Amino acid sequence: MSRINDVGGMAGFPAVLEEPDEPPFHADWEAHVFALNGALIKRGVYNLDEFRDAQERLPVEQYLAASYYERWFAAITTLLREKGVATAAELHGH
Amino acid sequence: MGTDLAPGDRVRTRATDPAGHTRLPRYARGAVGVLVERAGRHPLADDRARGVPAEPQPVWHVRFAAADLFGAGDHTVTVELWQEYLTRVEEDA
Question: In this predicted complex, what is the ipTM?
Answer without folding.
Answer: 0.87
